[in-house]
Structure formats: C-alpha cells, structure tokens
Amino acid sequence: MRITKDQLASFSPNNFHFRSLELLRERFSNQHIDFEKVIRKIQEFQIAIPSAALGNGRASKKKSRTGGEPRDLSEKLEDIGLLQQLTCKTNSVSIYIPYDIPEDFGQVKDLANELNLEFDTMNSTSSQDQNQKEYAKLGSLGNPKKAIRDEAIAHNEEVINIGKKLGSKGLTVWMADGSNYPGQSKFRSTLGWTEESLREIYEYMPSDWDLMLEYKPYEPNCYHTVVPDWGTSSMLAKRLGERAKVLVDLGHHLPKTNIEQIVATLMYQNLLAGFHFNDSKYGDDELNAGSIKPYQLFLIFCELISGDEDGAQTWDSISWMIDASYNTQDPLVDLIQALESISIAYTKALLVDRKKLQEFQQNGEGSQAQEILQMAYLTDVRPLVCEARVRAGGAAEPLEAYRILMIRNKLVHERGRKSHNSIF
Question: Of the candidates 214, 216, 265, 396, which lies 20 to 30 Å from 198 by C-alpha distance?
C-alpha cells in the first residue's frame, strides 16, 4: 500500500509546534546556532532498516504475531517505503541472506527505485542457519574442519554476489563461533582459522566494498566467543586491510561498558565501520534504541559528531542500521519509535556548545563540562525533529498518522491475519 501526499499533508504541525520551535531558537540564541543547518543535518541522517525487523521474528507462539506481516522481500520493501513516507528517516534496506534472496532481481530493484530505497550493507548468517548441526557445536568460519570453514566462506561469497547484483557496497559479518566448556576449543587455533576465513572473504570482495566485523562477548556460547570485543575485532580488521572495520552493535556489550569511549577510540584509528542501533537491560540486544539508556545514546552521538568535526573520521564513512527483533508488538510501530529516539539523541548532540565544552575540558573543569552536556540533553528537541521531517515531506506525528490511517489493519486485510515474515 501507499500513503498519498494529501493524507500526509493532513498531519501537519499545529501552532504549538511553531511556538515551541521559536522558543528553542530563543534559548540557544547565545550559542549562535544555525538552526537551518541543524534541520538539514537531521534530514540528511538516514538509517537503514534490516529485512529481518519487519515481522514478529522471534515470537514463540503464532498467536503472538501482529498479522499482515510481509511474506517476501517485495513486501518488506513496501513496508520500509511506508516508514520512509511517514518519517523521511530511512532510505535504505539491509538484506539478510539466505532469508531474503530475490527471486527476480530486476523486479526487486525496480520496486526499490519506485520507493526511493537503496540497498545498504549485506548481512551473512554463516553462524546460524547454513549448517546448524555442525556450526552449533564447533562454529563456522573458525571451525576446526576445513570443509565446514569452506562452506561458511562460500556462503559469504554468495552474499557478496547477491549484493553486487543489488548495488550494495558492503558486507557485515557476525559469527556466533565459540565454546561452552573449558577445554572445548583451542583459543588461538579458532582465532587463526577465523582470520584465514575472513581473509578469503575480504579478498573476494570487490575493491569498492567494505567489510564490517561485529563482535559479541557471549551468546549463543557461554564460555568463550571467538570475536568477543572491539579489541579483537579491530585487530582482525587491521590484519585484513584498510577496507575492513569494526561494527558496533550497542547491545553487544557487557553491562556498564563505556561504549562512547569505544566509539572515540575506533574513530581515532579510522576503524569505525558503523552501528547497529538497539538497547539492552540485561544481556539482550533486542530493545529499541534509547529505550533503556537514552543518555548513553546521546553521549555516543556527541563522540561521533566531535570525531567528524575534529577530522578523526568522516561522518559519511559510517554506516547506520537499526538491529532489533520485535517479538510481540507491531514492528512498524516499534521501528517508528526507534527512528524517533535515534533522531532525538542525534539532534540533542548537535546542540552541544562544543567551543565552551572544549575550553572546560582543557582546564579540567568537570562540573562546567557536565552542565554543557546537560543543557543540550535536557532540551526537548522534538520540535526540531518534527520540523525536519515535515519539510522533507513526512508526517508531523508519524505514529498518530500510522494509527489514524489504520495502516496495520489495511496490511492485515491485504496479506491476511496469519501472514508472517519469511525469515521465521
């Protein structure tokens, strides 16, 4: 389905919005902030949607499903097109293989063009589904058996070939390889085999592609993971070559980890590949970005903006994607909320008075530096986010528009109550 321009126009800002916008201008007038520039930056910041996030993917019981879920890649593109119409915040899709292999590449590309969508980084799933019996026990790219490693490498090469046809320019690799018991694996050997496998994949990639290497301290293995942290990931990336970098998944960290420092350290080395946005309360990584730790998300964006302005690593070299699984709620509603939360954190970070902050940092004045951050963080920037969205052609309040237009009901009518995401 499509939303018409007239329908979107009916969800325009009210007078309270414009008064709030003027109050923001007045509050930050002493910083001489160019609000038009801020609005343009908000509009330019686009976040990819993964093809895996458009249904109740991990719902344990079918009765938990939302209904009207996309049944194939084309319907997933259509759902992302709806998100883009409402939010003007996502212009690309990140495909997971083998779940979403196009049956007709021409038709899929034509539909993406019609919806003004591009194909972001490709995602391999070599650790999870290609040969579960072998992988679950001894891993994929780090498996002791060369035949199994070759099988996992071949899967990644297949993903690259599909991505080339779609116009993608990158590959994300995450491995669940590891062990559950002391003595089950030889640490150095599994790491060495992993590096060898990654090198074959890296050399197979086109010269204009980037390899993004994820890390995770545990899950599904409980004792050791081959690539458990950003240090191991960055070491492997450096050994592979300049087109290999580290992907930061916000939920892939132990509790209380200083993720903003990791971001700054990776940017210092020009090693930050991109982000998977989500949040976690305990050891999960499936909650909406900013739903649990919004201040951390704000601080991360502060480091990203600072690193770009200081010349450590350019903003345009970084990839952005939401990575969460919506088990019991309407996935489109959750994605709208996630896009809004990310936009709000980014906008707050844009309002930080970096000149004063740097002065206080230079003089070691911690309380004053904290006040600078708090002034930006505690500001309600939703009017700025809304203004950027409306000027781009979106709805002033995307969730309100989604519900009033009864989009989920219409999708259920078109696809059926029992339709579901082909991934699960």
Answer: 265
Phi, psi of 263 (to 5 degrees): -60, -45
Taking the whole predicted model, whether its pTM rises above 0.85 is answered as yes
Q: Which helix (H) or strand (E) is 236 found in, with range?
A: helix 230-240
The alpha helices in 28-104, defined as continuous H runs, are 35-44, 73-87
Q: Among 3.40.50.300, 3.20.20.150, 3.10.20.600, 3.40.50.2300, what is the CATH number of 45-353+398-415?
A: 3.20.20.150
Distance CA 120, CA 55 (A): 19
**DSSP3 helix / strand / coil % (the chain, rounded to 5):** 50, 10, 40
Assigned token pair, 223: 């004792």
Q: How confident is the model at residue 6 (pLDDT cuts 50, 70, 90)?
A: very high
The Cα 137–Cα 220 span in angstroms is 11
CA dihedral 57→58→63→65, nearest 10 degrees, is -30
Residue 58 has pLDDT above 70, yes or no: no
* Sequence ranges of the domains in the chain: 45-353+398-415
Residue in 35, 199, 226, 257 with CA at minimum distance from that of residue 143: 226
Q: In the predicted model, is pLDDT for residue 60 greater than 50?
A: no
Backbone torsions φ then ψ of 245, nearest 5 degrees: -140, 180
Question: CA torsion sign, 291 to 295 to 299 to 305?
Answer: positive
